[in-house]
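Let us work through a complete example step by step.
Step 1: write down the sequence.
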Amino acid sequence: MNTAHYAQWPAGLPHELNPPETSVYVNLDISARRYPNKAALIFYGRELSYRELQEEVDALAGYLQQVCGITRGDRVILHMQNCPQFIIGFYAILRADAVVVPVNPMLLTDELRHTVEDSGARVVLSAQELLPQLRPLQAEGLIQHALIARYADYIGESDDPMPDWVRNAHPPVADTTFMPWDKAIAAEKQLAPHQAGPNDLACMPYTSGTTGRPKGCMHTHRNMMFPVVSAALWAGGSPDHKVLACLPMFHVTGMQISMNTAIYTSATLIIMPRWDRDLAGCWITRYRITSWTSIPTMIIDFLSNPRLEDYDISSLRRVTGGGAAMPAAIAQKLFDLTGLRYMEGYGLSETIATTHSNPIQNLKQQCLGIPIFSVDSRVVDPETHAALPPNEVGEIIMHGPQIFQGYWGNEVKTREAFVHIDGKSFFRSGDLGYIDDEGFFFFTDRLKRMINASGYKVWPAEVEAMMYRHPAIRECCIIAAKDDYRGETVKAVVVLKDGASLTAEALIQWAREQMAAYKVPRLVEFVDGLPKSATGKVMWRQLQEAEQHQ
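Step 2: predict the structure and record it as tokens.
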């Protein structure tokens, strides 16, 4: 086992961790017993206590069992924006001994159809604005029951600006398939005893599908519990924390590090349905938010807000995240304003969140961190799987309690995802990186995302990090472009800051002064915005494919 990182270990924490041998639902049950009157959720001025949250969860679980026919191990689609109903639905599915299939609400009908068919789910928990995506699936007989939430039913008295799809309370729908959320809860159906344990399937997020059709990642309650308990210990979670939930909860980071960890620690979640930098500033100020898990694109947007001085963000104690390296200039600005270093971590859908994180006493920037409790992670040659020495780039692999059970119904892809070394089964992340002399892991790129320019290997993420140093650049994505001489050359797709002016020639000349010649972008394209996934990650593959077809 790789143990070089133990020298960096947070003081007082064990190297190994034994999480509770219970279902994830039990975390809510315990918090409701300990803090029944404490605010569990806040949504546009409306507070829901832990007692109220559990009562609604149990009522909905009874409906799922008695009316929808959900039994142990059945899959249930959870398909909505961040809102109280998402959390109620998530825990109700678990309480009903079923499996949560969280779905991106931005998916259109054809994309949603694949998840419904592949998972075998026949029950959907969704929201009013998403009915157009569901009705064709109902007509095809793929959906037998759907509980439809109205966001406006859970808002309080609030003058905060909110999207129309939150404010508008469309007339409730009710037919043989679609049932209003509030009526399902009001039915107060009898709830069967909770049976699910640590080895039962609990959640099945689908991968992004960038290399094919999305695949369901099978996770047990044991898999899910581990990163939740780990996050609470590693970052110092407590019942006194106020957590800004701005990352999508259908994605593993928002689900695990924001939602589930807050409920495990009996903290209070302030729920943002979609990212809004002014709303974030307002709520951090009003609720004295202490914990904020985000991604670099959100931090960049937040810190570039001309109204930033209007907000008091001094309550923040921890700003964490991942998904991409935080540009050094942005991290420095955050530190100058708050005295906080951005705590970067690393995880995937297949690991149901964190496998690596920076230790609080030594937060390195643009760094994945070190393997957390009980995780054996290595960097190996992608072809031979031989371990590589420090500072040599290879594939990051990991073995640990949070690693998924495999891809749903796809034994071939499951076998391809693992490699066996030293009697252990390691998940192949498909990410390239290296370990430095202190045992910290660094990401360089995806295994298949590399530019080969005249034999020189160029890692786009490295070039992007350097490009962010330019004062006029707001966002940047590096892709490969065809070149008759070099085979491939480096192209920068750039979004400028508001009011900034820059020519391609000037940017190229600047880049020549910042990096080795073979890394310098030879081509620059200025655009109004970069395509992003629902979780805020830049969809570099979409830009790459468009470039290849030019």
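Step 3: interpret the result. The chain is about 30% helix and 25% strand.
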